[in-house]
Design goal:
The complex is a heterodimer of chains A (about 625) and B (about 150). With about 625 residues, chain A is an all-alpha fold. Helix content of chain A is about 25%, strand content about 0%. Chain A has a two-stranded antiparallel ribbon. The radius of gyration of chain A is 24 Å and the shape is globular. With about 150 residues, chain B is mainly beta. Helix content of chain B is about 10%, strand content about 45%. Chain B contains one helix and nine strands. In chain B, strands 3, 4, 6, 7 and 8 form a five-stranded antiparallel sheet that branches. In chain B, strand 3 and strand 4 form a beta hairpin. Chain B is elongated. The chains are: A mainly alpha (about 625), B mainly beta (about 150). Chains A and B meet through loops of A and helix 1, strand 1, strand 2, strand 4 and strand 5 of B.
């Protein structure tokens, strides 16, 4: 009986939904709907406990913080001197840097750009987190941040902006036979057209179906044409740059999220003349370049860490920090990928007399690697298997989805972007499971409250339990919850390898302490790491060193004091977040749309891992 | 003395910074290829479980491409090492030695395997080194052994 009632209710809901979708689709298409538009039904396909309980209040908290900084950016703009465009070619003498960076800052904190005018770029990238995810409970649980249409969500953690502009255009270095550069975890923002991967990265989220959600890049030009700071855009990029004749239905189209059934496969539903389309494309390039200018500015990437101060001989590292640094470039071999611009010291106390490759070491080799992270069953992406209000399904494969990272990008595969270089397609099997080597800079950044901070400022001095700490999510899928765990993972991934998925470690073991579940993707697994032989104390010393890479030591990091949420306390960094582990369901084989795309991954399919008891003995 | 070393280190860092090229965002050139790559620590089992075997060995730093592949050719017949497992490792140009590690999965329990190791650059060019043929026996179901290292 109860089941019957449920079916009846579900059928009624489906009919209502169909009517709503049909109505909305029509209104978006012709703009002549006779009834007022229906409010979209929130999309919540998630089992209980996947969305954090405080999600809505936390989204509102971040919105307040974003708007605070947006107002600050408006004030920055109004304080700029009058532009002095002069010379041949014409340049904004004296104020050009400030103008384009301020423009980028305004764009970064502008909620109006998103489809429902409720989400800025910064909503997932706030300064106090090194411009990564600002909601501790999201970092702890669902990993991917909810988009403008609640609660669609992406599939990976929000990458830090800091120093992303330094990544080169993606290239395959034939001498090394390796890829270098690009932006995004899977390097899909190659930079091939703008010759700037960071800028091309900024062109992703505004039209990402699960992020800011616009259905057409022209919507960004449309919204910039209405922005309060339009005069600044035209001062930087040229008078008339935004003079585009938009059709009368643009507002409605740009208020309907990408992926909506009404659009079909049309990626340019805003119908513009060829000339205006070219102009809108140019505006979207300028959007990207302005954001890149902001991310390269001293507001985001200032080289003000303690490590930078050491390089300038202003301070010394403490004994523990120095020990951590020597491990970082010695026994632990971190600097083989997170290059520090220096040589190595293998013997404690050895004097470093190596040459320096760069003044401003970026702690990344710009490469990619598969570190063998287990599948994280809390990732919100796995649950978006049914159509939302607009008829869009983010992940029709559910737990048959596998994140092959760069390999999927090279195949122009599901959830990535088209690969613009056909020569790279055969290389996909060598890139399966690999993700960008992030800079280690600002991996430890958390909110602070120096004197003069805005009212309500909350400081969380560390990422590590017992804290008070600011919860982050590390690596592409957020499986790791503290820097201690991160270093311990590199140190013991293979030593404590078990043939189980997350949530199924055998009795007598503790996940992330002496049990590491099997990698989501076993291909191309990096074996530089996995058994480094570090002691517990040495792991802690590396964490201490990583904390010296946080900007804001030589001068305050802008807006690091805008966090108004709550820190977490208690527990241990080793098991931080373990109370939120959930059992991974039995995994179906990798979906054909992912692993069945040539050139095939090797091994070709990833079989489900069946949890079974394992006896631990040494 | 303890304080002197860090100061010396920092002074050296600063001096070398002043003399260095300020270029940024450049991919480091490959290290000079070693004249001869030789195994300095013979292959050994690092871990043996019923689902995963890890073999490790050490060579002098082979140089060349930053990523190398450790390769294990193996089989149950010492005359037929037709199976292959390989994993990438990243060289540290500043380290005199390089440790290769290769993971082997899907082996049969309580079975003796014979193997030989070698390595190559990321473009497939061999380092020109290979070990003698060695053997190991996989544990039984549910068993797990972490051999003590030397």
């Amino acid at each position: 009986m109860r089941r019957g009632r449920w079916i009846l209710g579900a059928a009624t809901c489906a009919m209502v939904l169909a009517v709503l979708i049909g109505f909305h689709a029509g209104s978006a298409q012709d703009g002549k709907g006779k009834k007022p538009p229906a409010a979209p039904t929130v999309y919540n396909p998630y089992p209980s406990g996947i969305l954090p309980a405080d999600l809505e209040s936390e989204i509102e908290r971040v919105r307040r913080e974003v708007n605070f900084i947006f107002q600050q950016a408006l004030a920055d703009w109004r304080a700029l001197p009058p532009p002095n465009l002069t010379g041949q070619p014409p340049k904004l003498q004296g104020s050009g840097y400030d103008m384009v960076q301020t423009l980028g800052k305004l764009m970064n904190f502008d909620e109006n750009i998103s489809v429902f005018k409720n989400q800025a770029c910064a909503s997932c990238h706030m300064p106090y987190a090194g411009f990564s995810g600002p909601i501790p409970s999201v970092n702890l649980t669902m990993v991917a941040f909810p988009g403008s249409f609640h609660f669609r969500a992406g599939k990976r953690t929000a990458q830090r902006y800091t120093y992303s502009p330094w990544f080169p255009v993606l290239q395959f270095n034939e001498t090394q036979a390796l890829f270098f550069g690009g932006n995004f975890w899977d390097s899909r923002a190659t930079g091939y057209l703008l010759q700037n991967p960071d800028a091309e990265q900024a062109q992703g989220p505004p039209v990402d179906t699960q992020e800011m959600g616009s259905p057409d890049t022209a919507c960004i030009a449309f919204k910039l044409s209405q922005a309060e700071y339009r005069p600044l855009f035209e001062q930087v990029w040229g008078k008339g740059a935004l003079d585009i004749k938009f059709p009368h239905d643009t507002e409605k189209i740009c208020g309907t999220p990408g992926g909506a059934a009404v659009f079909g496969t049309d990626t340019t539903p805003v119908k513009l003349s060829p000339g205006d389309r070219t102009k809108a494309n140019r505006v979207y390039d300028n959007w990207a370049q302005s954001l890149d200018a902001f991310e390269k500015s001293k507001e985001v990437s200032p080289f003000t860490s303690k490590f930078d101060a050491v390089l300038k001989s202003l301070v010394s590292l403490t004994p523990d920090e120095m020990a951590g640094y020597n491990l970082f470039r010695g026994k632990a071999n971190c600097n083989s990928c997170h290059t520090d611009g220096r040589g190595t010291t293998l013997t404690p106390g050895q004097t470093d007399n190596s040459n320096v490759a760069v003044f401003n070491p970026l702690f990344t080799c710009f490469g990619s690697a598969n570190e063998g992270l287990p599948l994280n069953p809390r990732n919100a992406f796995y649950y978006q298997t049914t159509p939302d209000f607009f008829g869009f399904t983010a992940n029709p494969f559910g737990f048959a989805y596998r994140d092959l990272g760069m390999g999927t990008f090279l195949r122009s595969g599901f959830g990535s972007w088209p690969n613009p270089n056909a020569e790279w397609i055969p290389l996909a099997p060598t890139a399966d499971g690999t993700f960008q080597v992030a800079t280690a800079r600002n991996v430890a950044m958390t909110p602070t409250c120096p004197p003069g901070s805005p009212p309500g400022c909350v400081a969380c001095p560390t990422t590590e339990a017992p804290g008070p700490y600011f919860q982050k999510g590390f690596f592409h899928n957020g499986y790791i919850k503290s820097l201690k765990q991160l270093v311990h993972f590199y140190n013991t991934r293979d030593l404590f390898a078990f043939p189980v998925t997350s949530g199924h470690c055998p009795p007598g073991t503790i996940e992330k302490v002496n049990c590491w579940p099997t990698p989501e993707v076993p291909n191309n697994l990096d074996c530089t790491t996995g058994n480094l032989g570090l002691t517990d104390r040495e792991e802690n010393q590396i964490v201490t060193f990583l904390q010296t890479l946080t900007d804001g030591f030589t001068k305050p990091y802008p807006n690091r004091d805008t966090f108004t949420g709550r820190c977490m306390t208690g527990g241990s960094a080793s098991t931080q977040g373990n109370e939120f582990l959930i059992p991974t369901p039995p995994l179906p084989p990798c979906a054909a749309a992912i692993c069945g795309v040539p050139p095939f991954p090797n091994p070709p399919t990833f079989c489900p891992v069946t949890p079974r008891p394992v006896t631990a003995k040494r | 003395m303890n304080r002197l070393l860090p100061r010396l280190a920092i002074a050296t860092i600063v001096a070398s910074l002043l003399l260095s090229n300020p270029g940024a965002a450049q991919v480091l050139p490959p290290a000079k290829k070693a004249e001869r790559v030789r195994i300095t620590k013979a292959p050994e089992l690092e871990l043996a479980t019923d689902h995963l075997i890890i073999i490790r060995w050490t060579t002098n730093n082979p140089g060349g491409s930053d990523v190398h592949y450790g390769i294990v050719h193996y089989g149950t017949d010492p005359q037929d090492l037709s199976e292959t497992a390989k994993n990438p490792i990243r060289l540290n140009q500043g380290h005199p030695r390089t440790t290769f590690r290769v993971r082997m999965e899907g082996l049969k329990p309580r079975t003796t395997y014979y193997y030989r190791v070698t390595s190559e650059e990321s473009n497939g060019k061999s380092d020109g080194v290979k070990s003698a043929v060695k053997k190991f026996t996989t544990p039984g179901p549910g068993e797990r052994m972490v051999p003590k290292s030397d």
